């Protein structure tokens, strides 16, 4: 398989930059800076955050309902700058992939799909501001960031030159592949629940652990907590839901964490048992990926518990977001490994 090392290096760098974007997005949300700039793509009509007294006076005259908070403004703008850099980088990757489209196995569709997703992400970033942190948009924006990161990892794996071979098709391997895909869907659902928890400011709705408000089954307002028909218009900074609705969201996220943990632990043992019959190289690659998945799960659960008992320390909360991304990436890599169709990285129409 022939491919360009430049394409691989760029895709790897883009993946790492996407991790930074996800982390910055979490930080911006957690320090309540999502509306640090009340307009888009600039900040109070400036390309940077207004800092001088004259600039602040002009800004507050243009946006009288949004007093300038310089630190929050910079948190938002740095996130935008880095996300914009990622878009340009992926555009470069897409152009290179198109130029190299005649090289055997060169991914072409995948870079352009990723580029399209990032452009859509920019629109969600705009709507996050213009719709004043409407939870539906904020959650979709978070999921879009995780999806972008996953696609960039897939592109990096495609260009990595790893000599993975197709696993022998058997009844056992088919079952493991299906279960691994189910686990991936469960993790995506749990990430969605985490995004909904964050966008509705429900991370501390249950201030104790393992109980919630001192009860194993607290009062829950599920219909309000998961009402995706929330009206557009009010400022959702700080959240609009009452206590029981936020408790319902948080509690569901906890139950989701338990279910996800059980499924991933079961997947770990299924992969270990299945891989024992494979060659040394195949067995090693699968077992390493399954171990990384289990390690990411344990760290993520620990971070989640620490968030509760520590009352949402900023560094831990950001790490929890990144931990969710890491867990998702291990599932993406594991599914890719289990379903690799050819030697090397060729043969994939994307």
Please describe the structure with a list of short key phrases separated by commas or semicolons:
single chain, 350 residues, mainly alpha, 10 helices
In short:
The protein has 350 residues and is mainly alpha-helical. The chain has helices at residues 5-30, 53-62, 70-99, 109-130, 135-159, 171-199, 222-225, 243-275, 280-309, 314-338.
Write the layout of secondary structure elements.
Elements: H1 5-30, H2 53-62, H3 70-99, H4 109-130, H5 135-159, H6 171-199, H7 222-225, H8 243-275, H9 280-309, H10 314-338
Helix pairs in contact: 1-3, 1-5, 1-10, 3-4, 4-5, 5-6, 5-10, 6-8, 6-10, 8-9, 9-10
Strand content: under 5%
Distance between the termini: 15 Å
Count of domains? 2
Instruction: Please summarize the sheet with the most strands.
Output: none
By secondary-structure content and strand pairing, the structural class works out as mainly alpha
Mean pLDDT: 91
Low-confidence stretches: 342-347
Oligomer: single chain
What string, H for helix and E for strand, traces the elements in order? HHHHHHHHHH
Record field, number of beta strands: 0
**Radius of gyration over alpha carbons?**
22 Å
């Amino acid at each position: 398989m022939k491919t360009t090392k430049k394409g691989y290096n760029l895709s790897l760098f883009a993946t790492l930059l996407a991790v930074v974007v996800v982390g910055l997005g979490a930080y911006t949300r957690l320090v309540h800076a999502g509306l640090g700039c009340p307009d888009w793509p600039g900040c109070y009509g400036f390309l940077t955050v207004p800092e001088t007294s004259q600039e602040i006076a002009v800004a507050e005259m243009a946006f009288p309902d949004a007093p300038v908070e310089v630190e929050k403004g910079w948190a938002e703008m740095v996130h935008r700058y880095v996300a914009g850099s990622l878009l340009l980088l992926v555009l470069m990757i897409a152009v290179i992939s198109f130029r190299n489209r005649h090289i055997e196995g060169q991914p072409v569709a995948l870079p352009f799909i990723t580029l399209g997703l990032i452009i859509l992400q920019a629109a969600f970033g705009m709507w996050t501001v213009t719709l004043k942190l409407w939870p539906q948009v904020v959650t979709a924006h978070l999921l879009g960031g995780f999806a972008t990161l996953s696609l960039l990892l897939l592109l990096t794996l495609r260009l990595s030159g790893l000599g993975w071979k197709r696993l022998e098709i058997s009844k056992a391997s088919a079952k493991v592949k299906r279960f691994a895909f189910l686990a991936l869907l469960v993790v995506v659902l749990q990430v969605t629940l985490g995004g909904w928890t964050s966008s509705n400011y429900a991370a501390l709705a249950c201030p104790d652990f393992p109980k919630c408000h001192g009860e194993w089954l607290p009062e829950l307002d599920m219909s309000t907590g998961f009402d995706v028909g929330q009206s557009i218009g009010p400022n959702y900074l700080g959240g609009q839901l009452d206590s029981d609705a936020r408790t319902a969201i948080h509690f569901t996220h906890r139950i989701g964490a338990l279910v996800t943990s059980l499924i991933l632990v079961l997947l770990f043992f299924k992969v270990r048992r299945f891989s024992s019959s494979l060659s040394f190289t195949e067995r090693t690659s699968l077992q390493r990926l399954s171990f990384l998945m289990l390690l990411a799960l344990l760290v993520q659960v620990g971070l989640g518990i620490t968030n509760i008992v520590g009352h949402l320390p900023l560094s831990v909360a950001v790490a929890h977001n990144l931990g969710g991304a890491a867990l998702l990436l291990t599932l993406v890599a594991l599914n890719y490994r289990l379903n690799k169709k050819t030697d090397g990285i060729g043969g994939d129409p994307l």
